[in-house]
User: What shape does this take?
Amino acid sequence: MDIKKSNRRWFTLLVVLSAPLLYVIDIFIINMAIPGIEKAIHATNSEVQLIIAGYLLGSASFLIIGGRAGDYLGKKKVFFWGMFLFTLTSCLCGLSQTAVQLDIMRFFQGISSSFMVPQSIAFIQILFKDPKERAKAIGWYGITLSIAAIIGQILGGYLVDTEWGIAGWRLIFLINLPVGIVALWAIGKFLNETEKDTRQDFDYSGSVILTLALAFLIYPLTQGREAGWPLWSVCLLVLSVVMGGYFIYIQRRKLLLGRIPLMDTSLFNIKEFNIGLLAVLFHFMMHTSFLLISAVYLQNGLGISSLECGIYFVFHAILFMISSIVAAKLIVKYGKRVLQAGLLIILLSFILQILFFKTYVSSLNIHLLIGLYGLGNGLVLPSLLTICLNSIPEKFAGVAAGVFSTFQQTASALGISILGGVFYYVLDDNKRSIDYSKAFEYSLSASIVCLVLVAYMLYLLPKRAVKQLPVEANY
Assistant: This one.
């Protein structure tokens, strides 16, 4: 093998990994900035929830379309323009003057990510033909996600507490400009265009209907709660159910007519896949909302600085990375019991947080208990894809992984809206520390309910060992 050519492939991998790196950083970095954003642009609690949920909603709605766009138009072209739009919308987020502007820009930032991230997985398949090298490259993809989580927590805390002639919270978005410019240059110089498959069809109508159905669900769950559940919010919730049903109907119809739907609904005829998706739903609702709620509570409730708050999550990210590596080896032998052990560790972490995360909590307790959560979550989160796809025929693995990723993002947005809504509902107008403590306890209690539901879904799955499959969008 040509050593120079081999080294070039691994260097090209660094370029390819810039997409998941930036995408995951922008999930974690925002949590550290939420209190600062609230004060700076006078955002309401519901508007703050939409800053996070909108990003996830945009990504979820167009993730499958983004993957197919690379096949149809060329992966390099879609990757380049996805990165360009992600950089542009990041800057527009940083320049937003109102909460509404920021919510809209975050939604479009999420859409742009859905076009660049799928190309990174596709390029790994193209660059590395040898199974061992490909497995190693996919391993680096997973490591990148963990590193991005650590960077997001620390960088978010540091930038929010920094003033470089511009408000610190704006820097968490504007920092993507220099990184994006370098990435665009590298994409243009080092990536080769792929062959186009013009036989692929785009389900534009399905994507639009799915986006509207999700938007009509997420928006009233956040805004309606704060407004006292007016009639419009109830109507939108009903409409979301109707459009969701209509989406499933047209997807099945397109499948029967021999056309390519956005989602292959025949997958939902597999009972174990459905159970796995429900486990994904409740776990990601719990996980994403916990990251938001704990960051807000530590800063607003306990008076901890943004930078210190970010540092508290470093131990969490490190333990998550270590336990996820261990889980990848254990799951082949022990199957779902690895995930069940992880759920018990998370449950222990939540109970101890409720007991000890009070006004005068020690720094050591925060490090240990948030770290304990990372340890347990590492045994669960990356392995959910393996569990979900275990019963899927190999020829449907790619389609099922796309459905999984879309479902994962949607679940995260629902977690921000529902469990985050529990947290903000309990808070009163005075926002005293004791109220934050109560809100934190109630939200963690709701998260424990989600944990119990995940455990029940895992109980329903068979006990057999599972095969290893690459993780596409876990974080």
Observations:
- Residues 271-301 form the longest helix (31 residues).
